[in-house]
Write a structure and sequence with these properties.
Helix content: 40-55%
Shape: rod-shaped
Radius of gyration: 63 Å
Strand content: 5-15%
CATH superfamily of one domain: endopeptidase domain like (from Nostoc punctiforme)
Strand order of the largest sheet: 3-8-4-5-6-7
Number of strands: 8
Structural class: alpha+beta
């Protein structure tokens, strides 16, 4: 073996044929590019330069903004739709409320009409009852009635102030009875008595309790035309009338009979006072 067999050679390694060819191709490409660039430069020097605009690139931020805008638009549409539904519901509710009000008014009118008809029937029945009562009393007077002692009675022969009081109360026979009534076509018991004595300039208290003590107490066996009859206790009477003579009295009795002329036996009084 040679003494130089293990010594590395200082000669450069030979390049392979493929490496040489690749380098040659690269060099050729560079030269070609330079040639084209030179030619292009010459051509550009002769032709006008045309400016071009580049469109913006859709970045991630712009895409997010677009998506957000779409969400806002969708939310606004949903809000408008919800508001439209609410408006429609409110309109339906208002229409229903109007219909309910009209129905309530209709029912109220029908109920009012029904009550008016019922009141009219009741009033007609009361008038018929009073007419029948007056007819009965008139027949009793015409055929002759008895006072509490059983003697026959005839028309009163009162004179003066008593005659004026009696004429007034008899003129009101047939009028209606109304609580608190003081005429001219409706009365309560004390209102009729007060108005009758006012005809002869005597001012009586307004209520029956006071009228029952307004004059001198007299016995029912010693009555005179024009005496005030009362029912209940003196000072606590609940009803008054006027004695017209011959065992008869006139009084505003109640809402069923109105003002009547009747015998004492029809409704016997408790006592009497004399103011004439």
């Amino acid at each position: 073996m040679s003494h130089t067999a293990h010594i590395r050679s200082h000669r450069k390694p030979r390049r392979s044929a493929s490496t040489i060819a690749m380098r040659a191709g690269v060099a050729g490409g560079v030269l070609s590019t330079l040639a084209v660039a030179g030619a292009s430069g010459s051509a550009n020097a002769a032709e006008p330069v045309t400016q071009t605009l580049e469109l913006p690139t859709l970045t991630a931020d712009l895409a997010a903004q677009v998506a957000q805008s779409a969400d806002v638009t969708q939310q606004a549409a949903a809000s408008y739709e919800l508001q439209a539904e609410r408006d429609a519901a409110a309109a339906r509710a208002a229409k229903q409320a109007e219909a309910d009000l009209a129905e309530a008014k209709k029912k109220a009118e029908e109920e009012k009409k029904k009550k008016a008809e019922e009141a009219a029937r009741k009033a007609a029945a009361e008038r018929a009852s009073r007419t029948a009562e007056r007819a009965t009393l008139s027949a009793s007077v015409d055929t002759g009635s008895s006072d509490s002692s059983g003697s026959s009675v005839s028309s009163s022969s009162a004179t003066g102030s008593a005659a004026a009081v009696i004429a007034f109360v008899q003129a009101q026979v047939g009028d209606a009875y109304v609580t608190g009534g003081t005429g001219p076509n409706s009365w309560d018991c004390s209102g009729l008595v007060q108005a009758a004595f006012k005809q002869v300039n005597i001012d009586l208290p307004r209520v029956s309790q006071s009228q029952s003590t307004a004059g001198t107490q007299v016995s029912l066996d010693n009555l005179q035309p024009g005496d005030i009859l009362y029912w209940g206790g003196a000072g606590s009477a609940y009803h008054v009338g006027v004695y017209v003579g011959d065992g008869m009295f006139v009084g505003a009795q109640n809402s069923s009979t109105g003002v009547v002329q009747a015998p004492l036996s029809y409704d016997p009084p408790s006592g009497a006072v004399r103011v004439l």
